[in-house]
Design a protein that fits this description.
The protein is mostly helical and 188 residues long. The protein has four helices and two strands. A two-stranded antiparallel ribbon has the order 1-2. Strand 1 and strand 2 form a beta hairpin. Belongs to the NapB family.
Amino acid sequence: MKKTILMALSAALVLSMSACADKSQESSAQSTKSATSNTIVTEEELGLRKENLYTEKGVAPVKKVDVTAAPGTAKRFERSYENAPPLIPHSVDGLLPITRNNNACLGCHMPEVASSVGATPIPPTHFMDFRTQKKLDHLAQQRFNCSQCHVPQANVKPLVKNTFQPDYRNPNEKKRSNLIDTLNEGVK
């Protein structure tokens, strides 16, 4: 008899807990439904541009001030962070597209020429094969396409507020890369 009473009490307890859980889920679903029904996000509000996602019709490109200055005459922007690829401070009209056989950037930026024309020299990392860890006497084949990492600098208003402040360990790193020296930093 005691066993039967204990089993009945256990069953009643399980049923009441299940009913409470169902009511809790129902209540949670109702509150979620009411919260989401009041806050509908349209497809136009999803992206940073706030435009229709299915068509580009009528969408104006980002307004920017292109750099039209000749090489060596424009004010250079600082790097965004330590060892960041520098921005291109001059017009790239007539320089693109870059191919393996046609790279006008090399005429001014090869290390043996750069200082005489006031250009930023291509850093040592671009003359290294990272797979073999060997220094090369020529530009690494993986790095012929300059515009893959380097883009023309432009005065544009950010779409999202950015409070990032770079922390350079050495003030000279604002203008030059020391990536070749720090490449394996922290690697044992």
